[in-house]
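Board notes (copied after class):
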Amino acid sequence: MSNIVPIGEDQATGVPRKLQAGDSLVNASGNSASGLPKRYIEGLAVGRNNSTDTQLVVTAGSCRNSANGADIELSSQTIGDTTTTHSAANGFAQLNGVDEKGLDNLLSGSITCSQTTNTITATGDITPHYNPRAITGTISATGTALTGSGTSFRSELWIGDLVGTSTTYGWSRVIAVLSDTSATLVLAFPGGDPTSISAEVIHSATIWAGTVTDNKQVVRTINAAGTSIVVFANATVSASSPLTLGTLPDNSTPDDFAEATWVFVWVIDDGTTPGILLSTQHEELLAPPSGYTSFRRVGALLWLDAEDAPAGFRGGFYADTGHYRKFSVYANSLQQINSSTFGVVSFYPGFASSNPQYAPRTAVRIWGKAECVNTSLTNNNSITMGPTFASLALTAVVPTAQRLVSGELARAESAMFDIDVAPGQAFNFQQGSTSGHSVVLLMQGFYDSL
């Protein structure tokens, strides 16, 4: 058997060498190299289950896991069910269910809660169980205005994330990212305004106090001790009730910017029984089932929690096109941004005012169309779209070089747009050379980087 040497280097001389007969490819540990190529994915297309809004479907397929250490294969179509919650026995998620973490039964110690009005009181610090991550630079705040120094808010924060610290100031939810150094919070920090402090982010923080479905909500603020959690809706939960993180919102009075949540779909494997998990997290799962250490994100679907309809997945499907997956929405599910007044509307790929989000934070390209829908006027509309940050005022005309759609649209006419996006990137949508026109932006799909 040939000696084990790094590929392309002769062990004795250190000079480049070619593979020869009898050589075997091995990894850095000296084990035989095998399996699918890095980032490989085939099949595993994601879509809503047409028979119920609370389920989604992942088709059969295979992929290389995120760590590039093993393959994962689903031999048949797999259904993910949002009613399959965490295991009461150990607090971790169940296979083919929601990536929830039940704090009342974790091996590290019991955390229970009570709730009066819109404040949940926990018996222990919940923040470490959200897996907070440090962000770049330092932050300061005056009320709900968040500013940064040396920060990268556009790539590190997203609508629905909590930003803050477990010392003194606590945490508050982000409702707008204006630039790399400017963002808006839903409420002031519970412990007062910080000045030039290091901070962390908790992605897409959701919580469930007790067992009543209507208590599944997004988090607004958490105090520094991690024991006082403010949510949107009032409720009364008795003492010693269970507390769950990572739940999908399902409340009859949805919070601002909380009507839409992107559910990230992961395939997981323990070496014996592969399956899927539905998670609010795009980087790291909260509580995979015991023994499951191999993961790969394969898509995302929009979960809507609306006052006038039951919570559930809304239309759309991923085309099977490999690592950069194309997501298209159904014709009756186009996410739209309406503008009936003259001037400029600012929007993000992740949200638009109080409208549903139409692309997840993992999107790398979006497309759709701008359509003049005014039925009474025949005057033309001037429509321009382009990237905008703090340096470009909302009343400014988008520079020609930055325009996605430009020109005059008559009634019932439309123009397509298709553009790359970056995390947190904002756009201006300016319509109307005369007031009284009505224009709709129809978001038809995006490419997702898996």
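Comment from the instructor: DSSP finds one helix and 36 strands in the chain. The CA atoms of residues 315 and 332 lie 8 Å apart.
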